[in-house]
Recover the amino acids of this structure.
């Protein structure tokens, strides 16, 4: 890990530094949105906000990367190998380069070496509801307080194309998707591992602000007239302009890959749409999505 716990007068142990209302949504996939701008976090389960918290992220020269991440592994009693065995309780790794969620100083400003510091009790509670593969979205924007429902992002048959489908790399676990407008590609991730990639044609967000937005699959809506069904989504993050009107867009992709996705969608499945590339570093030098080769090498280096 690359981020020590910094001694400071902070709110790490203050009860009012976070909210926690898991009873608002007792089951379903979890999505975490981190705002570098407001130094806050929001936690959604099955599309409903169940928690918020103050955080502290990386300071100048050690900035926390923005992008879409998945929890790679968890360690409730982690200690830093880089900073003199410094304790990092309830650590949830986001990159093999050392960025993680964990309990640490929360002084009201950016104070870490790249990690996301959380209030101690909040980090413990969050640790209990996440798993390897849980989606974490880190943006420079403030988490939007509005949650909008009824968005339609349809999966439709497009042109035949070359796609990657390797379900054996992660046979089970929660499924999430990332669509990169820059790459024009949809990435399918299960239990934190990329198991599929497919080219996509769509005008999704072409008239909206740039950035990253997260959706959760709400379910199928049946047309009583012709029996066709459409997928509906709840948006839980993104620029405020993304919430001004209900989306009704198509994502056209290879018919075989589209058929695969139809069978994998369950209520709460994450769809993250970003204007960034997910196979190249961000402006701060961190990949949004590491390849398996890079991941294996990084794991080897940490042992």
């Amino acid at each position: 890990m690359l981020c020590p716990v910094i001694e400071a007068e902070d709110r790490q142990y203050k009860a009012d530094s976070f909210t926690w209302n898991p009873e608002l949504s007792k089951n379903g996939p979890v999505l975490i949105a981190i705002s570098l701008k407001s130094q806050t976090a929001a936690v959604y389960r099955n599309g409903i906000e169940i928690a918020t918290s103050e955080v502290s992220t990386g300071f100048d020269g050690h900035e926390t990367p923005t992008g879409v991440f998945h929890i790679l592994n968890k360690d409730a009693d982690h200690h830093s190998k880089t900073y003199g065995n410094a304790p990092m309780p309830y650590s949830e790794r986001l990159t093999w380069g050392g960025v993680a969620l964990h309990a640490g100083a929360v002084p009201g400003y950016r104070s870490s070496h790249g990690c996301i510091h959380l209030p101690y009790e909040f980090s413990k509670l969050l640790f209990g509801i996440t798993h390897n593969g849980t989606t974490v979205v880190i943006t420079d924007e403030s988490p939007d307080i509005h949650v909008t429902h009824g968005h339609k992002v349809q999966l439709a048959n497009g042109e035949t194309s070359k796609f990657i489908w390797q379900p054996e790399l992660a046979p089970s676990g929660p499924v999430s998707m990332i669509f990169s407008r820059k790459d024009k590609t949809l990435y399918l991730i299960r239990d934190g591992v990329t198991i599929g990639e497919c080219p996509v044609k769509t005008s999704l967000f072409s008239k909206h602000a740039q950035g990253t937005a997260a959706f959760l699959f709400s379910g199928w809506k049946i047309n009583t007239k012709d029996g066709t069904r459409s997928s509906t989504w709840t948006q839980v993050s993104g620029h405020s302009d993304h919430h001004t009107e209900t989306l009704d867009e198509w994502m056209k992709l290879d018919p075989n890959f589209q058929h695969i996705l139809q069978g994998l969608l369950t209520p709460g499945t994450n769809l993250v749409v970003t204007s960034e590339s997910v196979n190249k570093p961000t402006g701060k030098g961190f990949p949004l999505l590491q390849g398996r080769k890079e991941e294996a090498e990084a794991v080897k280096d940490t042992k």
